[in-house]
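S1.2 Input.
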Amino acid sequence: MQLLRRLAFPISLIYAMVVYIRNFLFDKNIFKNKSYHTKTICVGNLSVGGTGKTPMIEFLINSIGENKKIAVLSRGYGRKSKGFLLANSQTEVGELGDEPYQIAKKFPGIDVAVDADRQNGIATLEEMRSPDIILLDDAFQHRKVTCTHYVLLTAYEELYVDDWYLPTGNLRDSKAQAKRADIIVVTKCPRDLSQSAQAAIRRKLGPSSQQEVVFSYLEYDTNLKGGPRELSLEQLKGQKLSLVTGIANPSPLVEYLVAKGLELEHLSYPDHHFFSPKEMDMFRKKERILTTEKDYVRLSGLMGEVYYISIKHVFLGKGEKVLRERLKLM
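S1.3 Output.
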């Protein structure tokens, strides 16, 4: 794979040029963008791959609280529907996509919509639902919309400043576009990341005086959900486990479970993978299936006993307070 990526370097140069020209045309207002009356908070990244966007959306929902009318707008990657779709109690995962469906099920009191055209999605939500705040999931590169605030995520071990353009690297947008972020969140950090290490990363990222940089780690729930009864990780020691993942980077989860003393068979699939009937038949023969919350929404109802482990962002130091103040959530 690494050899193929290196051989694709000339293609990455063409991709980089296209990205540069596109951003230049937006910067010069040749390509038009649009602002909206409703407060909009964009959560995204510059690279493909998992940086914790969905847990960040969930964190923001919990931080905003029930006194505001919240809507979440996503593209709905991999969904089978087209155009604008507002989730309701009858909507299925294939219509929304796994991540929006997870949010809709977890937060039934908010509006969750999907639309690849973010301008149309925001305008339709304003007309239909009149939300106080719209959270845009994975929309940092969508320059046609000018948001009120931008939250840029970058993973600790895969900082965007160390990356290169697709397909040689994982960058899908220019590193220079980080300047549009109000706050940069370095995710998936070690829990004990020192102040000096944080300072070194800040220097490496080179934020402007108007930007904040904060650090977070992903905390896994020690209690598993989804099955007929709640189980703890401790109760699974000594049992045969099959971990099913269809996420961008399952390594941190695998490392966490192994560190907890669990013995597991890891069945890894591409991000947003929709499981085939043949794969489902194979899963049913396993003694116990453990999966991620995002994968669970695609497995639930299709097989018997399956458990998922949920995650959430936890900020280091005063990071949570800084983020809440910067986004005016306090």
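S1.4 Remarks. The radius of gyration is 20 Å.
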